[in-house]
């Protein structure tokens, strides 16, 4: 190994140490200046003490300039950063934090590079649903199959989609209400496996306090789409009693 190679190696190590020290101290301006150096090669596999990689850290700290610079790296480096899961925090990844922080610009950057933004990539039920905005969910642009039919959760042998599964769990209620508002959510959606599952589930568990109002939201959307069909369903089906829409 030549002296110049050794010097280059030592210099890059020093710069990475400086960069990560700035990250740990939340000195975004210092971290960015080091990052922008022509001869700086970011160690993409380094993490800070809580296990976050640089992309997750930048998203959580709203370091927009750092994020933009990350997306100038070679695609394989970006892919490693996007796909990384923090085992110290429910295996959450960069997309999870982008959604959780309503970082629409980063979601678009991830999406434009062709990385998956499907629901199972995000770990929906660990989101802080109260703070996730409708515009953020719309940016994900999930199609009807993903939103209404994806077979990700099984309970008592039955297949539940995201919305009907979420109805069963108190912590998911806020997210359920927001998903119902999405244009892609079709309350009439069904095939040979699933028939009106979200509405049926919300009616079946109506006695639970956290479910109150969800069946009304779904029925309201039914009325907006097809009043005649909604009225027929609300009169009772599959052993459920009639349901009167509340204003």
Topology:
Layout: H1 3-24, H2 28-35, H3 54-60, H4 64-70, H5 75-83, H6 94-100, H7 104-112, H8 119-122, H9 134-140, H10 144-149, E1 153-155, E2 158-160, H11 162-167, H12 173-181, H13 197-204, H14 214-225, H15 227-234
Antiparallel strand pairs: 1-2
Keywords:
15 helices, mainly alpha, Serine Threonine Protein Phosphatase 5, Tetratricopeptide repeat, 247 residues, 2 domains
Structure overview:
The chain has 247 residues and is mainly alpha-helical. The termini are far apart. The protein has helices at residues 3-24, 28-35, 54-60, 64-70, 75-83, 94-100, 104-112, 119-122, 134-140, 144-149, 162-167, 173-181, 197-204, 214-225, 227-234, and strands at residues 153-155, 158-160. It has a two-stranded antiparallel sheet with strand order 1-2. The protein is elongated and about 80 Å long. It folds into 2 domains: 1-141, Alpha Horseshoe (Serine Threonine Protein Phosphatase 5, Tetratricopeptide repeat); 143-247, no CATH class. Strand 1 and strand 2 form a beta hairpin.
Structural class: mainly alpha
What's the rounded overall pLDDT mean? 77
Indicate the overall shape. elongated
CA-atom Rg in angstroms: 23 Å
CATH class of the largest domain, please? Mainly Alpha
Summarize the structure.
This protein has 247 residues and is mainly α. 52% of the residues lie in helices and 2% in strands.
């Amino acid at each position: 190994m030549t002296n110049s190679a050794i010097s280059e190696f030592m210099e890059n190590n020093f710069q990475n140490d400086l960069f990560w020290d700035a990250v740990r101290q939340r000195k975004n301006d210092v971290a960015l200046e080091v990052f922008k150096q022509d001869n700086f090669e970011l160690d993409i596999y380094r993490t800070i003490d809580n296990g976050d990689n640089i992309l997750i850290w930048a998203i959580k700290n709203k370091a927009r300039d750092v994020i933009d610079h990350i997306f100038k790296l070679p695609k394989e480096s970006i892919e490693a950063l996007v796909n990384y899961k923090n085992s110290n925090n429910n295996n959450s990844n960069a997309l999870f934090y982008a959604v959780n922080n309503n970082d629409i610009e980063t979601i678009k950057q991830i999406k434009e590079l062709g990385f998956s933004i499907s629901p199972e990539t995000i770990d929906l039920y660990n989101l802080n649903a109260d703070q996730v905005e409708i515009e953020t969910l719309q940016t994900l642009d999930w199609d009807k199959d993903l939103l209404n039919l994806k077979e990700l959760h099984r309970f008592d042998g039955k297949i539940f989609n995201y919305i009907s599964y979420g109805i069963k769990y108190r912590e998911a209620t806020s997210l359920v209400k927001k998903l119902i508002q999405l244009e892609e959510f079709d309350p009439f959606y069904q095939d040979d496996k699933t028939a009106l599952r979200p509405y049926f589930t919300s009616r079946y568990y109506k006695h639970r306090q956290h479910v109150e109002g969800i069946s009304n939201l779904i029925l309201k959307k039914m009325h907006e789409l097809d009043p005649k069909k909604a009225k027929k369903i609300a009169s009772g089906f599959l052993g459920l009693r009639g349901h009167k829409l509340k204003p």
